[in-house]
Amino acid sequence: MKELGTTTQLVHADKSLNPQSDGAVHSPANQSVLFEFADAQGIVDAFQGKKSAHVYSRSSSSTNNSLQNVINHFEGGIGAVTFATGMAAISSVLLSLLKHGDHIIVSEFLFGNTRSFFKHLQQLGIEVSFVDVTDVHNVELAKQSNTVLVFCESLSNPMTQVADLSAIGTYCQRQQLLYIVDNTMSPSVIFSAKAALASLVISSLTKYVSGHGQVLGGSVVDTGLFDWQCYANIEPIYKVVDTTQWGLTQIRKKGLRDIGATLPAPSAATILVGMETLDLRYQKACENARKLAQHFINHPQIKSVFYPGLACHPQHYIARDHFSSYGAIMSIELPDGVDIIQLINRMKLVICATHLGDTRTLALPVAQTIYFESTQEERDRMGITNQIVRLSIGIEDIDDLLADFEQALYG
Ligand SMILES: *Cc1c(COP(=O)(O)O)cnc(C)c1O
């Protein structure tokens, strides 16, 4: 049989991957914290890993398992773990896999809170090199004898840099380095992190996957490409018989059970519903972004446009080779003298908010908000001027968006 289309797969995934005994088409939000064992030997076997069973919902529950199965399916992985937020996924995965004295190579173009977390890791005794990941050579130059992993985002905000995804993947494979990709801004429906040889794929489910701005969540998927026998920090007790499961076992125990940033069951159920329309929403948002970028590129009221779908974007060729659409985030730079606060205030449909991947189009002044804590020097290095507005494009009708931007730009 011909492979089913993406939306067909998405709307049927929960029902087919997680069949319910009563025929329910949705996995129910099961809120029980505890699980009764009729036979005491059963709980002993569960604790000793001889039998798989839920023992306490901080570590596992049926609703989280359902969401993990669906997310894992679309990333083509060998297993997934879900967390309370995207930041919980990032921090729990790294804290469970790193040890004092390790060196890691991370992108210098990161979601602000992720960058702040890596700075905190430095204070805990992890050596961190921030490098320009748009060229694999910078990663190669940063490699040390104690380097254990490379972390980057596929597509970064606000300046839309695209990492040298497959080249870094090939390099990490050759050097036996763990390769972690945050693909929040280019979800699985347009980009396969596994095809770019990622070992672990991290996502904030808060953004495009759930899509409607009413639930937080995060996930990590093991693509099965990394040989965990090459990773020095796996504890002997987590070296289970199946070596492919070493990484996820340690992440579940140290990252989820011990750190405890568990995704609540009602959130997991809400994310499963949102994910059914991921492709419909995301393709529409990408299409709107493409039309807006084309409209903005020669616009007399706009100085520059940062969007990887434009041939003039420095990583356009990487985006073209890896993504089936160019994403739905962009930034625009307004000419000096234009008051960007007033410009955003004039927008009637577009909402002023700090979020990404919503159904609604959002605008945010960048230097004055998410980069307020950075020094002028840091902003200069990243090309973040006071005139930049970040846009997260939604799924509204394009004519309405064009009209709203036009009246705001000429207001
Ligand atoms: C939003 C975001 C995160 C953090 O996700 P939360 O769910 O808000 O904690 C991490 N990485 C990227 C690229 C993001 O955009």
Characteristics:
about 400 residues; alpha/beta; Aspartate Aminotransferase, domain 2; Aspartate Aminotransferase, domain 1; 14 helices; 12 strands; about 35% helix; binds pyridoxal-5'-phosphate
Q: What low-confidence regions span 5 or more consecutive residues with pLDDT below 50? A: none
Strand order of the largest sheet: 1-7-6-5-4-2-3
- Return the CATH topology of the largest domain: Aspartate Aminotransferase, domain 2
Please state the CA-atom Rg, rounded to the nearest Å.
22 Å
Structural class, please?
alpha/beta
Write down the secondary-structure element order.
HHHEHEHEHEHEEEHHHEHEHEEHEH
The CATH superfamily of the largest domain is identified as Type I PLP-dependent aspartate aminotransferase-like (Major domain)
**Number of E-state strands:** 12
Bound ligand species: pyridoxal-5'-phosphate
- How much of the sequence lies in strands comes to 5-15%
Shape: globular
What average pLDDT do the residues reach? 97
Tally of DSSP helical segments: 14
Count of discrete domains = 2
Which assembly state applies to the chains in this document?
A: single chain
What is the highest CATH level, the class of the largest domain?
A: Alpha Beta
